[in-house]
Amino acid sequence: MSAVAVAAESAKRRGLIALIRGTGAAGIASAIVIAIALFIAIFGPFIASDANLSRLSLSYVGPAPGHLLGFDGQGRDVMARILVGARTSMLGPLLVVAICMSVGTVLAISSAWRRGAYDTVVSSGLDVLFAFPAILLAILAATVFGAGLIAAVLALAVAYTPYVARVLRGAALRERGQQYVDALSVQGLSSVSICLRHLIPNMAPLIVAQATILFGYAMVDLAAISFLGLGVQPPNPDWGVMVAENQSGLIQGYPTSALAAGVCIVIVVVAFNILGERLYEQAQRERR
Amino acid sequence: MGRLRFLARRLAMLLATLLVSSFIIFSALYLAPGNPIAVLSGGRTLPPESVKVLEERYHLDKPFLEQYAIWLGGAVHGDLGISIALRQNVSSLIAARIWTTAALVLYASIIIVLIGVGIGLLAGLRPGLLDTSAVVATSFSAAIPSFVAAILLILLFSVRLGWFPVLGNGTGLWGTAYHLTLPAFALAISALGIVARVTRASVREELQREHVQTAVSRGIPYAKLIRRHVLRNAAIPITTITGITIASLIAIAAVVERAFGLNGLGAYLVGAANSKDFAVVQGISLVLVTAFVVVNVIVDILYAVLDPRVSLESKAE
Amino acid sequence: MTDDRPLLEIEALTVQLPVEGSPRAVLRDVALSIQPGEALGLVGESGSGKSMTARAVDRLLPAGADVAGSIRFDGKDVLALKGADFRAYRDDVAMIFQDPRAHINPVRRIGDFMTEALRTNSGVSRSEASGLAVALLEDVGIPDGGRRLHQYPHELSGGLLQRVMIATALLTEPRLLLADEPTTALDVTTQAEVMAILDDLRREFGLTLLFITHDLELAAAVCDRTAVMYAGQIVEIRASTLLHGDPLHPYTAALAAARPDIDATAHRLTAIAGQPLSAFEAPEGECAFAPRCPHARERCRTEAPVLQTIDGGVVRCLRAEELRGRLEVAAHG
Fold it and tell me: Residues B264, B123: contact at Cβ < 8 Å?
């Protein structure tokens, strides 16, 4: 019986590619958009011409060969700034998600596993963090540590951790109640190796879905913080910064730079939202 | 009885949360690198007597916990200290700006309830073309950050069409409403998408319920069936998501206020963060956290009011 | 002549439901009738179409269902009813569902649930409706009805909720009661109590009952006649007293021979060799039960049986005449 339970449990495991393939046409299309965005984030700075090269004579000059989106108010190539800005715009959310997912997963599984006083302490600690909206926490962090990407990333990671931990704790509790966990403990496996080799792999679809959804949120919030002037600092190109620094151009009727950055943000966020939703539905379906 | 106890427990949790939050806010800024005296003096070296006067005025000579107690005691009585940059009472600085933020969030909330919930209900009850287009439209609007919405609205309605002002607060009720229209939509657009999607899904789910079938089989007329059995039950998740979403706007308002040059709490908070005006950052943070937590508690209470299954001790035999 | 007219008469009822775009049969040529005051049992495995038959009678089929054939209630064509006539029909026919917990709105009080139809459709005042509800709760063995009306469904046990459901069904003074596995979701002791209440009230009120169950013995105990369904078709209708000892169809014989426990469905299913067939899986032009039938012959796989009358019963079996009197023995051997 126990061997059957353990075998059935590992049969459910699949790789990332298989998970994405299960999300249907919309999910796969979103994954492709995300892959392109990641590609640009990695290679964009090598493809683009100098993103900070300012030629005031070219201020607000329209598209030209080699300069597909024209120039911004300071005469900088908008296309180059989009390509280079992709790096911080994608890297920031990636860091946020990596931190809050690791911390959240550890907290969720350890409190679901040990329960008791430890669980109570963790849960109440996280409950207090629920009182801080992400943007407010980021503003506080910028006040304390000074404006910059690192402070913003840390603040968002802290703000998102309670949400991650709450969702995953429920899943970990359900998983803990499964037969195979008892079977493995009877076989003498330690708690840590049951968690690492069985619990986490089984929760992987949910963890991946959660991370995907949070990436979209993190992108919006980080860009908003940069827009407020508390995140990535100009003249470094970042999509949020580009929207902010183009405000005066916007009113004069030259919105290209802000629009291009805004559109990039929306496209990537929509892709993450759709893929995340599909992955989440898939994870829910499989649990039944 | 069960309800009163639920209410009391929820309020106790509210106070505890606020107490811990206030401590976090205060101590975070206390631990911040940099000397408040240096900020006060603007970088000049002051004679020791002046430093002493300043330290006493701002209680900087007291131990940390005492400073916190003084600050919290003042905060409870509406005294949030003195702005280092402006040499003014933080409470009156907040009072001068809080209504702009409150009006903005309220305006956005009305938009979310009327349009977001409205679209969700229509799409949920009427499958077909309307539903499909609502699903596509709301999944995009849910992904539009407030500041991107802001530039799109400014571009279209201020720069191109000239229907609305680009910047400023406006005066009088009508003037304020007029000036706040674009900001409120910028603030609402993403939340509106989320609320519409959850509303639609909730209505769909309730329509499938077995108890709705019972009502059909008993000949309850359609309009009444929808109102008493579908909408009444869907109201529970719809109220929750609407409330939570509205609470989240309290912080995001800062972004919209900056984009539209509104003289609100959030924009002021960002300015204070840049100039390291700690008393202002502490004061506004406390106000925003309080508002956020209170709205969330109201959502919890509404949930308990709407759903009889919540919180009451089981009396099943 | 009019006295003999059935209250409910179903003829050639065929229903198809769209599944992923293509229609799937759920009922195939169902025919049965119930006389006023009679109790008819409708027995079958899950997927046999017994619940669908009740849903068709109550016009509760999902949107997109393709319905052919006729359902007549008191002489009126049920499928064609509209407006006031249809509302009157809803009052005349009441349904008791399997899972009371799911079938009663959890956010409304018991009193609201019980009296809603009366207040809405018959214009009875709230206080008058509540008085009637309390009286009926008393009839189903709930003495403190006044208190119960103010409670919410989650405050009542499953057995109590099903009694509420029965009382509610009787409140509009229906002429036909459709009971769709009313005790399946309850625990064994509660099942017996609820069943006894339902049986008593039916006799007291002179109600006509269509009782749907997967339990042949239960149907036989409560009903005057019992109809057996398989793969969306009626395979036998016969007086309940004769069904067990003298079945006409091999499937009925197999069901009876398996002698199920009151709740052990799985036990009985394994007692008949092979998998039960859903209506949409049933092949055209042959007997749907043939693959599992110990008496199947070559012609059973090439010719579809039709309903025929034998000894006051109705049976759908090509070999019914030959197998007369041999079925019970065969099932045991």
Answer: no
Contact criterion met (CB < 8 Å) for B142 and A273: yes
> What's chain C look like in SS3?
CHHHCCCEEEEEEEEEEEECCEEEEEEEEEEEEECCCCEEEEECCCCCCHHHHHHHHCCCCCCCCEEEEEEEECCEEHHHCCHHHHHHHHHHEEEECCCHHHHCCCCCCHHHHHHHHHHHHHCCCHHHHHHHHHHHHHHCCCCCHHHHCCCCHHHCCHHHHHHHHHHHHHHCCCCEEEEECCCCCCCHHHHHHHHHHHHHHHHHHCCEEEEEECCHHHHHHHCCEEEEEECCEEEEEEEHHHHHHCCCCHHHHHHHHCCCCCCCHHHHHHHCCCCCCCHHHCCCCCCCCHHHCCCCCHHHHCCCCCCEEECCEEECCCCHHHHCCCHHHHHHC
The mean per-residue pLDDT over the stretch C156-182 comes to 90
Instruction: Give strand pairing partners of C96.
Output: C179
B217 and C152 in contact by Cβ < 8 A? Answer: no
**Tokens of residue A216, six digits:** 């979209």
CA distance linking residue C161 with residue C105, whole number of Å: 11
Per DSSP, B161 falls in state: S
Of B13, B154, B269, which has the smallest distance from its Cβ to A250's Cβ? B154
| C-alpha–C-alpha distance, residues B63 and B59, integer Å | 9
User: Number of residue pairs across A and B with CB atoms under 8 Å?
Assistant: 134
Residue C305's nearest CA partner among C50, C243, C296 is C296
Quote the minimal CA–CA distance from A281 to chain B in Å.
Answer: 13
Count of residues for chain B? 317
Reported ipTM: 0.86
Chain A adjacent subunits, 3+ CB pairs under 8 A: B
pTM metric for this prediction: 0.84
Query: Virtual CA dihedral for C280, C283, C286, C289, nearest 10 degrees?
Result: -60
Q: At which residue do the structure tokens 């110990």 appear?
A: C294
pLDDT band of B194, cuts 50, 70, 90: very high
Residue B270 and residue A140: Cβ atoms within 8 Å? no
End-to-end CA distance of chain C: 45
The whole-number pLDDT of residue C266 equals 46
Angle B1-B211-B309 from CA coordinates, rounded to 5°? 20
What gap in Å lies between CA C241 and CA C218, rounded to an integer?
Answer: 12
C46-80 as b/e: b if 16+ CB within 10 A: ebbbbbbbbbbbbbbbeeebebebebbbeeeebee
Please state whether beta strands C313-315 and C308-310 pair in parallel, antiparallel, or not at all (unpaired). Answer: antiparallel
Structure tokens at A138: 């980021």
Question: pLDDT per residue over C51-98, tens digit each?
Answer: 899 999 999 888 888 899 999 998 889 998 888 888 889 889 999 998
Structure token pair of residue A190:
């330690």
User: Does the beta-carbon distance from B211 to C160 stay under 8 Å?
Assistant: no
Distance from the Cα of C81 to chain B's closest Cα (Å) equals: 13
pLDDT in tens, C219-263: 888 899 999 999 889 999 988 888 877 888 888 888 877 655 444
